[in-house]
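Thread title: Can someone regenerate the structure for this chain?

I was given the following input by a collaborator and told the matching structure tokens would be attached. They weren't. Posting the sequence so someone can regenerate them.
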Amino acid sequence: MGRISKGVACSVEGCGERAVHSLSLEETRILESKGYSLAAIHGRVYLCEKHYKEWKKARKKLDKFEKWRMMR
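Best answer:
Regenerated them for you:
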């Protein structure tokens, strides 16, 4: 059994919701740049649905810029 199925809380400070996704600490640098403070557990960050959605939107935007940059 993993930590998510055991009911770990979201790693964003001030958020007490239950985590639904786990990401590596390197992948979550996008959220830190948006001003969130994260508490990592053994190099993993656990996100609730709300914060995962924010991460996904920011990641999609960053990937689009990287794609444009590589086309030049």
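The mean pLDDT is 91.
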